[in-house]
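REQUEST
  id: r-88c1
  op: predict_structure
  target: TNFR-Cys domain-containing protein
  payload:
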Amino acid sequence: MSITWTLTLLYTLLCDVLVQALTSSSGTEGSLSPRHYHHVDPATGSKLVCDKCPAGTYVSSHCTNSTVRECTECPGGTFTRGENGVQQCHRCRSRCQAPLVEKSPCTATTDRTCVCPPGTSAEHVDCLQHPLCLPGWGVRKQGSKLEDVRCRRCPRGTFSNVPSRVLRCRTHTDCQALGKLLLLDGTDKTDSVCGTSSLGLVSSSSRSSDPALGGKNAQR
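RESPONSE
  id: r-88c1
  status: 200
  body:
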């Protein structure tokens, strides 16, 4: 009985030690600030916590027990985006090749960005011209550097009379609201045709032939 109790006690103590060790290790790693990085000093074997270098620079010398880390500006054609513990800057993307155009240049803190020119979208390695929405169709969603123009057929009461990559379907003119007569209904490709009221108006041909209106055949 005493042997069993002793083994149980030893097992319990061993578990406690392991849990404490794991908790301590986890807490140490988790407490590292995003603005710091670990470095093992080759001279002493000590695990040190060094300050990171700011964006646009790199670590030229790690910290030691008695000195802080040293930072050096990125040379031309290289960059680092944020605070870092790297020992060399990243190389910028090569110059943009046609048909791609440069959106943002290579700087000490940003990489060069190449995009398709306006009015085109990327298709594998090519930039393709956005398609036109034909008459009777309007733009549902304008194209981007990554996506083509999306068209939709003009619904009842709207129209589109020109090919376009940007124009949406337009509403037919409301002749009544303008105080005019609707002479011709609009379609998905044409606008409504409005005209003025004919009440009280007489054509010139009628006026010239009607004696009562002073035409050329009126009695003298």
